[in-house]
Amino acid sequence: MSLRDYLHEKAEESRHNETLAYMMFIAGAIFFIGGILATVTANPMPDWFLFFPYQIAFEPLGMLGLAFTLTGISLLVFGVGMGLYYAHDRVWYMKELYKANSMQASSMGEKKQKRRSNVKT
Q1: What pLDDT, on the 0 to 100 scale, is given for residue 93?
Q2: Which residues neighbour 65 within 8 Å (Cβ) at sequence distance 6 or greater?
Q3: What's the pLDDT at 112?
Q4: Predicted local distance difference test score (pLDDT) of residue 76
Q5: Which of 23, 31, 46, 89 sits 20 to 30 Å CA-CA off 13?
Q6: Percent of the chain having pLDDT more than 90?
């Protein structure tokens, strides 16, 4: 396996992981909205601290809403973090791939110049 093939493979893997991170972000948004809706359904007037209810009814729907809200927030944060990490990681692979391609292109240019000089003489 050549360096170019390896870099192509790693960039493709990083793109795949970035897509999974964005899917994690979307799942987090869905869980977060579901948690807020479940909390409001269980208790129409909960006391809120930012996005988190701090006085909830201790019944299954209220606890489920809190669990969904916490899970959603954590998936949102980790999804964005992983997406940025893999996007940054892919930039490195693309730079290395560009270097490998430019070295190959320059060596091909030198070969063409040698052929031209051999044909002219």
Answers
A1: 78
A2: 34, 35, 36, 37, 38, 39, 40, 41, 42, 53, 56
A3: 61
A4: 96
A5: 31
A6: 30
pLDDT of residue 100: 76
d(CA 26, CA 83): 12
The Cα–Cα gap between 51 and 69 comes to: 8
Q: Which helix H or strand E contains 15, and what residues bound it?
A: helix 3-42
The answer to whether 72 touches 31, Cβ cutoff 8 Å, is: yes
Q: What residue segments make up the domains of the chain, in order of their start? A: 3-115
- pLDDT averaged over the chain? 82
Cα–Cα distance between 72 and 93 in angstroms, integer? Answer: 31
Residue 85, both tokens: 């990490």
Tokens of 111: 């070969």
Report residue 54 CA to chain centroid gap.
Answer: 31
Tokens of 10: 């790693």
Cβ-based burial of 24 (10 A; exposed 0-12, middle 13-18, buried ≥19) = buried
Q: Residue 121 above 60 pLDDT?
A: no
